[in-house]
Design brief:
Distance between the termini of chain C: 29 Å
Chains: A mainly alpha (343), B mainly alpha (392), C alpha/beta (253), D alpha/beta (447)
Oligomer: heterotetramer
Strand content of chain C: 15-25%
Shape of chain A: globular
Shape of chain C: globular
Radius of gyration of chain C: 19 Å
Strand content of chain A: 5-15%
Structural class of chain A: mainly alpha
Largest sheet of chain C: 6 strands, mixed
CATH architecture of chain A: Orthogonal Bundle
Structural class of chain C: alpha/beta
Largest sheet of chain A: 2 strands, antiparallel
CATH topology of the largest domain in chain C: Rossmann fold
């Protein structure tokens, strides 16, 4: 029992990352119909927004400490961030400590800008081109973005811890009456889970209750008619692309304390995000979110020792196996619309 | 001739000539010159050009004709490779049984995957094939290690049983051969400052490419090929014309799977090693990119596309900063460093960046891929010629 | 003699009874029209015949075979060719290739792995295809890509493709929908000619009474999923029930 | 065509190195070379095959730096580095056998196929007489088999799996790096000392060959000292989030977590384990502990502060105070501005060892080199007295047990040495069960 609750919690947490990424992808791919292989790269760039802000905050000047030596035996040069000079060491330290949450503010404008530039400069010209061309151009873009990040930040993962206040874990089991230490849950993962719920809720509300959202939804269903009504649907799609990029980027920003980011993390998530979107059903936002959480939970269950002992290797293939079963039993995924990307 | 029309015959002859004279064409620079770095006429790369050419030509039969985008064809290449290497371990180092079995195994595997995946179309089909290939990769890398060698893959070893081959002489190593002709056997020819290599393995692989290419032309021009194009164009009309699209698509899937298996078997024949990475989704993605880069649905496009990508991977990645400095050594120091600093991110370890830019440029500037580019060039050329004729 | 015989056919979608108690016979070498107001179930009926939908009850017999449970391509192979409301052709292929496909389907059946034959060697089929194109006045366009043809030409091509199969029954689903009057008249003339020149039975679903009364030998009126009346055109004209069914619709009867 | 002569040769004559012979329109005959890529003219080409793209690109870059440094030293440039402290004095800074050392580089992408393609191009196109490098066992085993077939020497870079010198060993291949067995043997006593002999260990193991051999090695040696293994769970190589593997650890009653992970897997699993607060827990009245059998300082950097206090083993560390290590750190640090990694160290040493073996053998012939390296004992290369064992071409030397440093002074200062495990303790029989099933075969000179 407790181990099942434990894996559901883990699954929800994993699923919230999947759901957020898939939500962004489904806005672009499921509804605009663009096969965007650069989507993983957007997630990665979001994560590196956090890294970049941290780098900016820790810009330093060097002070020579004669009491200590470096590895060559020379006096040690100690880095003092400029921010200490501005705000004093304590406040400076606190700001750096909170750099990941602060990155949200930093990342939103950047990600929207990247999304808008991408759509205006590139994707726009590919709406009516074959999917093959979309794949090639976005894959090329993904590689370029990835290599640029690698050029500046290297290939290794970069540690980006959560603020001190959110480090460690709490004993969820003890709170609800299980033995201590049976169900533990890290604070930051809880933050991530709540954060993703807020973002998902905000996107749904935005599309559901604003005129903008209504027009966009109508445009997704029938672009030409909406165009005939004299509404500039292209401009709205551009904004939509920006929002999708921002959602994906934020998923990346908040992910860095969970796992240190590296330049190829986007590719690691790319296939998975496509699987989630398709399993959820093309063109369905709620399908993407549902599939994200479902795959996260199933993946967690498959990694239980008892399950692996029973079916060796199941943890390697669970996601794909589930995808196959769902697509064979439900032709358009969990909640897919008819006719989207079926030709 | 060969039951081909004039235009196709010309294409085939071009491919044959390219394949025959590849050792010359790919080594255009004198061995000692700085540009020798760009020579690609060494056996391994020439073999890879033709093998991945076969892979892409086969993939194009499915993707180019029926429009079904498989993201899992690397699994068939991998399955073919494993089958071939096991033949070499158990039966003989002769490549013929290995290649035959690799085609058969890949055919059976693709029949299974296709039979299931073709229940869906469009993106759903793509994801199903992707899922199968990723499952193959994940399992081959981990729990199937006793069969696949897992991380380290499989290589022939001295103490493998090899029922048909006699015991190896003391100190000999098992080498892939065709009735005694060693795949790594090469003839070198020096002509002045140039040198050219003729490798037996390459020519055998090239023979398979020519055969595969010829078959692909025949399929393109056959009633069957027309049916496949009908599948892409309008399945509804097809059904109400009394045709069942599914066996056609499945047949195309299996044929392209067998091409992939042949490529996998040849990879092992030329370089006796099979590993799970061959089945990773990026490997499936690579053949998709090769086909699109060259030109989807064209005969020769996939061959060009695979050549371009493999060239990048093997030649551009080997240029290091040292080599750059030697190239630009004639410039004043400051300028040399600036130029090297500008070019450096694009070569050597930055070869991926160049590849990504190439993809973007090709697709933006040449919507039909490299073939489209070539056609435009030739049109431009023809136009120019016509004009000059008029002027006379 | 009946070519197509539908007995007690019913079709239910969940709680909705779309068709019920349909009894209908199409006689050989006649033109049988099925008319009815919107939502009368004409398309559902058609789809039940061609194998796209599985009827919930009843039977459909064609030329001695039951059509129930057969897939669309099998039904076509039995001799029923269908023309769609919006012309369905192979857009990426040229006109001649569009014609060769039904010829091949007629000769080779639903599937044949003729991967190593050259299409250029199919001289007989090509002749046949060109004959039909000639007949339909499309021969000059045989190298044109089907997608780039006008709607009227696409319709002609689609009919030509069906005729190339020498079907026993040609099913037409609103063949003049969305056409200008001149095109409609052309199509009527074309169909008339086909009827005269060929040994063929035609079933036509139509909205346009002008078309129906120019062509049909027999008319079935469908309303609310069930046949209202089935009779010759002269008897249908002025039939009170028909008028009632069409009440409110400004149809030229 | 008619004028040119064809010569039949097993493997290619080579291109990139300029030789006097090349300028003449003559054709080499097979008698001109007794073995693959016999160096012609005044230079010899080595092939440095390292990951330049993919997750291990930074490790590859460090390896490449070490190779460039080694080439510089061999050619008499720089301060000579470990050539001055090396027990053998055969190298004189005039290249190898008087031939100037040149090199070519390639990208393994940490994929066996790509690594072999790259190595083949070095052998076939550039005429490399020795291939070295790599950052994973899969690549090492694949390239080693290739070199055996082609008839060149392979000096393995970073490869830790037992298989490289176990069931997949080859006569033309040599490994200086330590292996899983040695990690287990070195770690176990230190762990028993620090954490007691009554521990319940929970293994998370990367689900591929290296993971298997490491798990087996650590399990065997810790169980021999009284530890109990509660469970061993395999994790997919492609896993990025280990939460669902780590969360159940506490439930199992284990008080120690062993992470048989490397690279990105290790960074993420360790980060996750610390995130779950495992290290703050007390189980069975013992502080919960985490162990990482194979440490890589470069990758450990990605885990940041999470490595503090965590035990592991490593092949070499820049803080070693023997003369060899000091000399190497000095020349590397002066040239590049930061200390070398263990990958850089093993690659540098391998290059020197190869060059030295050629000098001592007086020939580049792989068989002569194999003979010179087999059973060769040396010192002064940073790991104390070392033996290249003839039976399996594995180096036997001291192994370092290290611990994540509590108060690092710089981003390189992550590990501190806890113990230098003497070579006797990590030596095993060539027929040890963990290494069975392979055979060296005999050296292949190619041609």
């Amino acid at each position: 029992m407790d181990s099942i609750i434990l894996q559901i919690l883990n699954g929800l947490d994993k699923g919230s990352a999947y759901a957020l990424i898939a939500l962004g992808l489904t806005l672009i791919f499921g509804t605009l119909g663009v096969v965007n292989f650069a989507h993983g790269a957007l997630f990665m760039i979001g994560a590196f927004c956090a890294v970049t802000l941290n780098r900016i905050l820790t810009l330093s000047h060097q002070v020579i400490d004669n009491t200590r030596t470096d590895f060559l035996g020379n006096p040690l040069k100690v880095d003092i961030p400029y921010i200490y000079d501005f705000f004093g060491e304590n406040i400076g330290r606190a700001i750096i400590d909170w750099s990941v949450p602060l990155s949200i503010l930093f990342a939103i404008p950047i990600m929207i800008a990247i999304g808008v530039i991408m759509e205006r400069g590139l994707i726009r010209h590919f709406y009516h081109r074959p999917h093959a061309d979309q794949i090639l151009v976005t894959f090329g873009l993904a590689i370029v973005l990835q290599e640029v990040i690698k050029f500046y930040y290297g290939a290794n993962p970069i540690p980006s811890p959560a603020p001190e206040a959110f480090k460690g874990s709490f004993d969820f089991g003890a709170l609800v009456g299980f033995d201590p230490n049976t169900i533990i849950y890290p604070y930051w993962r809880l933050v991530y889970f709540c954060f993703s719920l807020i973002v998902i809720g905000a996107i749904f509300a935005f599309l559901q209750f604003t005129t903008f959202g209504m027009v966009v939804r109508a445009g997704m269903a029938d672009r030409e008619t909406v165009g005939l009504l004299g509404i500039d649907i292209d401009r709205r799609f551009t904004i939509m692309f920006g929002i999708a990029a921002a959602v994906t980027g934020l998923a990346g920003v908040m992910y860095v304390p969970i796992n240190p980011p590296n330049y190829h993390m986007g590719m690691d998530f790319l296939v998975l995000s496509f699987v989630v979107v398709v399993v959820g059903g093309m063109g369905s936002l709620s399908g993407a979110v549902l599939a994200g959480f479902m795959l996260g939970i199933l993946e967690s269950f498959a990694s239980m020792r008892e399950v692996i002992d029973l079916l060796p290797g199941i943890n390697q293939i669970i996601i794909y196996l589930v995808a196959i079963i769902i697509l064979l039993t439900r032709p358009r995924g969990l909640m897919g619309r008819r006719g989207v990307m079926e030709d | 001739m060969f039951k081909l029309n004039k235009k196709d015959l010309r294409t085939l002859i071009i491919v044959i000539l390219l394949a025959l004279f590849a050792p010359f064409l790919l080594n255009p620079f004198p061995t000692d010159s700085a540009l020798a770095q760009f020579n690609a006429g060494y056996p391994d790369l020439m073999q890879r050009f033709v093998i991945f050419g076969i892979f892409a030509v086969g993939f194009n039969i499915l993707f180019g004709l029926t429009g079904y985008l498989s993201f899992g064809h690397a699994a068939f290449l991998g399955a073919g490779s494993y089958a071939a290497i096991w033949m070499m371990k158990l039966l003989t180092m002769n490549i013929i049984p290995a290649i035959i079995i690799s085609v058969i195994v890949a055919g059976i595997f693709s029949l299974f995957v296709g039979w299931i995946s073709l229940r869906r179309s469009g993106i759903y089909f793509s994801i199903l094939t992707l899922a199968f290939s990723m499952m193959s990769y994940q399992l081959a890398y981990s729990v199937l290690t006793p069969i696949t060698g897992g991380e380290t893959g499989l290589q022939p070893k001295v103490n493998d049983p090899r029922l048909l081959d006699g015991a190896l002489a003391e100190g000999a190593i098992p080498k892939a051969n065709l009735f005694g002709l060693d795949m790594s056997q090469s003839y070198d020819m020096s002509l002045g400052a140039w040198s050219f290599t003729f490798n037996s393995g390459y020519y055998i692989a090239a023979a398979f490419l020519i055969l595969s290419f010829y078959l692909s032309i025949r399929i393109f021009r056959s009633p069957f090929g027309m049916m496949l194009r009908a599948v892409k164009s309008n399945q509804q009309r097809m059904t109400y014309t009394g045709l069942d699209p599914k066996p056609y698509t499945l047949a195309a899937f299996v044929i392209s799977g067998m091409y992939a298996g042949l490529a996998g078997g040849l990879l092992v024949a030329m370089d006796t090693q099979a590993g799970a990475e061959r089945m990773f989704w990026t490997a499936s993605g690579e053949v998709v990119l090769m086909t699109i880069l060259g030109g989807v649905g064209t005969l020769i496009g996939p061959v060009l596309g695979s050549g371009a990508i493999k060239y990048m991977e093997n030649i551009i990645s080997k240029i290091n900063s040292d080599i750059l400095h030697t190239w630009f050594a004639f410039l004043p120091d400051g300028l040399e460093n600036v130029i090297v600093a500008i070019i450096y991110p694009f070569i050597g370890k930055g070869w991926h960046l160049t590849l990504g830019l190439l993809f973007m440029i090709v697709v933006i500037a040449l919507p039909g891929g490299l073939v489209e580019g070539a056609q435009r060039l030739s049109r431009l050329f023809k136009k120019g010629k016509n004009k000059s004729n008029e002027n006379e | 003699m009946e070519l197509l015989e539908i007995k007690d056919l019913g079709k239910r979608f969940g709680g909705l009874q779309a068709l019920s108690e349909i009894n209908l016979s199409v006689m050989k070498n006649t033109v049988h029209a099925i008319i009815g107001p919107n939502g009368a179930g004409k398309s559902t009926l058609l789809n039940c015949i061609v194998g796209k939908l599985m009827p919930s009850s009843g039977s459909v017999m064609f030329d001695g075979y039951s059509l129930l449970g057969r897939s669309a391509h099998e039904i076509n192979q039995l001799g029923i060719s269908r023309v769609f409301q919006t012309p369905e052709v192979f857009g990426d292929l040229n006109v001649l290739e569009n014609m060769l496909i039904p010829c091949l389907a007629k000769r080779d059946g639903a599937f044949r792995l003729h991967a190593l034959k050259s299409i250029d060697d199919e001289k007989q089929l090509r002749e046949k295809a060109e004959d039909v194109l000639e007949d339909m006045g499309l021969i000059d366009k045989r190298h044109m890509k089907a997608a780039s043809m006008s709607r009227g030409d696409k319709r002609r091509l689609e009919i030509a493709m069906c005729l190339a199969q020498d079907p026993k029954l040609l099913l037409l689903d609103e063949p003049t929908a969305g056409m200008a009057r001149a095109d409609t008249n052309n199509t009527i003339d074309l169909l008339k000619r086909i009827k005269q020149e060929r040994d063929i039975t035609i079933a036509i679903i139509e909205h346009d009474m002008h078309v129906v009364f120019s062509l049909a030998d027999h008319i079935t009126v469908l309303a609310q999923g069930t046949p209202l009346v089935s009779d010759t055109p002269d008897n249908i004209k002025g039939h009170p029930k028909v008028k009632e069914a069409y009440l409110g619709e400004t149809q030229q009867v | 065509m008619t004028k040119s002569n064809f010569t039949r040769r097993g493997v290619l004559r080579t291109g990139a190195v300029a030789g006097a012979g090349l300028s003449l329109p003559t054709i080499f005959t097979s008698s001109a070379s007794a073995f693959t890529n016999e160096p012609q003219g005044g230079s010899v080409t080595l092939g440095f095959n390292v990951p330049q793209s993919g997750p291990y690109a930074d490790e590859g870059a460090d390896e490449l730096r070490a190779y460039e440094l080694a080439v510089e030293h061999l050619n008499g440039g720089g301060d000579g580095g470990m050539m001055n402290t090396f027990s053998s004095k055969a190298l004189r800074g005039n290249g190898i056998l008087g031939k100037k050392v040149e090199y070519v580089t390639g990208d393994t992408q940490t994929k066996s196929d790509a690594a072999r393609a790259s190595a083949k191009s070095m052998i076939e196109k550039d005429g490399a007489v020795m291939i070295t490098g790599g950052s994973s066992s899969g690549v090492a085993v694949a390239v080693q088999a290739l070199c055996q077939e082609a008839g060149v020497i392979f000096m393995a870079g970073l490869t830790h799996s037992n298989d490289t010198t176990g069931k997949d060993k080859r006569a033309n291949g040599f490994r200086h790096f330590f292996n899983s067995y040695m990690s287990g043997a070195a770690l176990a006593p230190v762990l028993a000392n620090a954490y007691g002999t009554d521990r319940n260990a929970y293994h998370l193991t990367a689900d591929y060959n290296w993971g298997y051999t490491t798990e087996e090695a650590v399990k065997d040696s810790t169980e021999a000292l009284g530890w109990n293994t509660v469970a061993a769970v395999k994790t997919p190589l492609t896993q990025t989030d280990f939460s669902s593997y780590i969360a159940p650890v506490l439930q199992s009653g284990a008080d120690t977590l062993v992470l048989n992970h490397y690279g990105g897997n290790m960074v993420n699993s360790l980060t996750n384990a610390v995130q779950f607060g495992l290290r703050d827990k007390v189980v069975n009245n013992k502080d919960f502990q985490i162990i990482v059998p194979l440490y890589s300082r470069l990758m450990a950097r990605g885990a940041g502060a999470n490595v503090k206090g965590i035990f592991g083993s490593t092949n070499w560390h820049w803080s070693l105070q023997d003369e060899g290590s000091k000399a190497f750190v000095r020349s590397f640090g002066t040239k590049y501005g930061f200390p070398p990694s263990q990958a850089a160290h093993t690659c540098y040493v391998q290059t020197l060892l190869y060059a030295d073996a050629v000098e001592r053998a007086g020939s580049f012939n792989p068989c002569a080199v194999v003979e010179a390296l087999e059973g060769y004992e040396f010192d002064g290369l940073g790991n104390g007295k070392t033996l290249y064992r003839a039976e399996d071409h594995q180096c036997f030397k001291d192994v370092l047990v290290v611990k994540g440093k509590e108060n690092p002074t710089s981003e390189f200062d992550l590990l501190e040495i806890v113990e230098v495990t003497p070579v006797e303790q990590v030596t095993y029989d060539p027929n040890h069960p963990q290494f069975q099933g392979g055979s060296l075969g005999s050296c292949n000179p190619g041609a």
